[in-house]
Amino acid sequence: GGSFTFYGGNSTEADGGDITWRAGDSDDAVGGHVEISAGKSVDSAAGHVTIEAGDSTVGTGGHITMTAGDSVNSTGGGFTLTLGDSVEDAAGAVAITAGSSTDSTGGGFTLTAGDSNDSTGGSFTLVAGDSVKDDGGSFTFYGGNSTEADGGDITWRAGDSDDAVGGHVEISAG
Question: pTM for the complete prediction?
Answer without folding.
Answer: 0.60
